[in-house]
Amino acid sequence: MNQIDAAIDELRGALDGDGFDLRLGSVEPDGVVRVILEARPGACLDCLVQDEVLLRILDDSIRKKSPDVRQVILEKQGFDRQEASE
Amino acid sequence: MISVAKRLVLLDPRVLLAGTEGLSPRLSTLDGKTVGVIWNSRPPGDLIMDGIFRILGARYHLGEIIVRKKPYVGNLAPAEILDELARKCDAVVTGVGDCGSCTSASVLDAITMERRGVPAAMVGAERLVRTTGRGMASLQGIPDFPLAVIPGIGQMEGIREDRDKAKIESYAADLAPQVESILLKGRSS
């Protein structure tokens, strides 16, 4: 497991119980890291922590382990499907 | 001849009581104190809170316990709840955080009460408190804000009062001494 994956791992465990997958999308040469947050079918949208808080946690933990990272971007997937089914 | 010290060192006891920067002054005891509860409306948080106060009630002569339920788990408690508890209470307990949004919002409830001068303890499941709860504390500029955790657990969905009484009591037993320590010393242990 690389450093960035390790940084994401702890938060992944916390979000999993609410029905979300968190994983590394890509690491760009210019230091931009894309993290994917996917809502699984049946995910608890009300339980999801605010984007601002989530990004802060990711940013802090990724930069701590990989100081060369310049920016962390959060990409959401599967949310349209969830909202449509409500 | 009597020598006189040229420099006096003044100690401010409030600094020692506060313990952590950003916290309001701590209480010297829970005896006779009115304690507010901001319950985030997620079961079995109400039962865990009951358990915490049963345990603390055996150690202290607690005053009134005022419980208020939040209408929505993921937001800061409404102004009327915060105003009422700030007016009436000597201390506040918030939680129980066991999902992403409710944990961070309960941390924000506690920090908001601290900023209004009321010592506050947020309680929650360790996996959430250490991530989303700590993230909110950091966002609020108090990364070391003391938080009380139920060790080793995440979401509590599926825990039922009739079937899981012992588990609920053990969670309360884990949390009660941490709540006591946060309100009196400004740290969770």
What count of helical segments of chain A does DSSP give? 3
Helix content of chain A: 40-55%
Low-confidence stretches of chain A: none
Strand content of chain B: 5-15%
Oligomeric category: heterodimer
Distance between the termini of chain A: 36 Å
Overall morphology of chain B: globular
Helix and strand pattern of chain B: HEHEHEHEHEH
> Which sheet architecture does the biggest sheet of chain B show?
5 strands, parallel
- Number of helices, counting only DSSP H or I runs of 4 residues or more of chain B: 6
Task: Give the neighbour order of strands across the main sheet of chain A.
Answer: 1-2-3
Q: Can you give the helix content of chain B as a percent range?
A: 40-55%
Topology:
The complex is a heterodimer of chains A (86) and B (189).
Chain A lengths: L2 H14 L3 E8 L4 E8 L11 H15 L5 E7 L1 H7 L1
Helix pairs in contact in A: 1-2
Chain B lengths: L12 H6 L16 E5 L5 H15 L5 E5 L9 H10 L2 E7 L2 H16 L4 E6 H14 L7 E4 L14 H21 L4
Parallel strand pairs in B: 1-2, 1-3, 3-4, 4-5
Helix pairs in contact in B: 2-6, 4-5
Descriptive overview:
The complex is a heterodimer of chains A (86) and B (189). Chain A is 42% helix and 27% strand. With 86 residues, chain A is α+β, with helices and mostly antiparallel strands. In chain A, strands 1-2-3 form a 3-stranded mixed β-sheet. The model of chain A has no long low-confidence stretch (mean pLDDT 90). Chain B is built from 6 helices and 5 strands, in the order H-E-H-E-H-E-H-E-H-E-H. In chain B, helix 4 (100-115) links the parallel strand 3 and strand 4. Chain B has helices spanning 13-18, 45-59, 79-88, 100-115, 126-139, 165-185; strands spanning 35-39, 65-69, 91-97, 120-125, 147-150. Residues 9-19 of chain B have low confidence and may be disordered. In chain B, strands 2-1-3-4-5 form a 5-stranded parallel β-sheet, sandwiched between helices. The radius of gyration of chain B is 18 Å and the shape is globular. Helix content of chain B is 43%, strand content 14%. Chain B is an alpha/beta fold. At the A-B interface, helix 1 and helix 2 of A face helix 4 and helix 5 of B.
